[in-house]
Amino acid sequence: MAPTRIISCQVKDIRFPTSLEKDGSDAMNLAPDYSAPYIILKTDSDLEGHGLTFTVGKGNEIVCHAIRVLSQMVVNKELDYIYNDFGTFWRSLTSEDQMRWLGPEKGVMHLAVAAIINALWDLWAKIEGKPLWKLLVDMEPEKLVSTIDFRYMSNVLSKDEALAILKKMQAGKSERENNLKSTGYPAYTTSVGWLGYDDVKLHRLCKEALAEGFTRFKAKVGADLADDKRRLTIIREEVGQDKMLLVDANQRWEVQEAIDWMKELAQFNLTWIEEPTSPDDILGHAQIAKELNPLGIGVATGEQCQNRIMFKQFLQANALQFCQIDSCRLGGVNENLAVILMASKYGVPICPHGGGVGLCELIQHLSIFDYIAVSGSLDKRVVEYVDHLHENFLHPTVVKNGSYQLPQAPGYSAQMKESSLVSNEWPNGAVWKKLIHDGVYTNPGI
Asked: Are 319 and 281 in contact (CB under 8 A)?
């Protein structure tokens, strides 16, 4: 029996002690604990919707509480009411007249919206018996456009323009789908470049990534210029001069500092600098891009871009050359679809932000949809891959020869194994109880 109604929303505070091995460490996040406010939408059938958003540890429970508050607007809703006009329902979550004050459409509340929306899409894909990317690819353009809230962006992309993009790309969809089935979607690895790794580990990880078929690599930079040059020298020595190399400063620099620093690093033949300054400084990114583009270095940003309105302005200002949508920073699939379509109009490649816990599982679907149904191109398009925590998912990402393989299981690939949920729930899961009891973990925070 197909579900007709949502009857409950379970929320779990899931955290992983990644800080112990410096996994995820960068110039601004020295010791992150990859975490996920995780939800399960129960229905009046056996089908469930699983969704998550992402934090780096402390404060995860704040997002969990926000989800519980918003869930009151979802529980007991008929699924036809949601899916028949998903764009309007999405707006109801982001625009509740009192809670909107806490954003609007940004920060903790938007992270909470993402978890709920991602779970609803997971449920919809399961009802249809398709992986999310296939649900989106097969959806009639009119239906897909109805899932998007065009408020505040219609001066750049109207509903009619979005519809025209999708209709134009109907031709050739099956060929592009078959192409990805045979080749996969290009990935780059960040696992070689965390700032906290020592040189021995850096050498080893580069060799391992090459052996796994990766030809695209990313390194964290921004804390110390001499150290950046030393580490990038190691990476270039290991991977060669012909491989794509990207760098990420995680918002560390002032605008002029970013320009000066990157001119020092230009010798390493870099494709982009990611998050060179404050994620909110659109004109600052534009200035950096103007200075660095002649050197062949593009600006990539978006993992902490709060909403579609900011992405609109980044695109208008030519402030980014690589659009890094995030499956959880934005308000779930609906808003990511809006940004994908805007970026297509501006001819800017979508290169989603991965890493974290569950982000790689989610973003693969968005890029696959972009190629098959929107852009029709793989030129300069890559998806981030980090080889952490996938073993906790029921249907983890599969990467072969440096490329994502198309997910086949119905849903949004968000469902975690029950054993992982039990072991890693904060603070009483078995993993956390032992670490805290043994005195190994000394950064409990909230």
From this structure: no
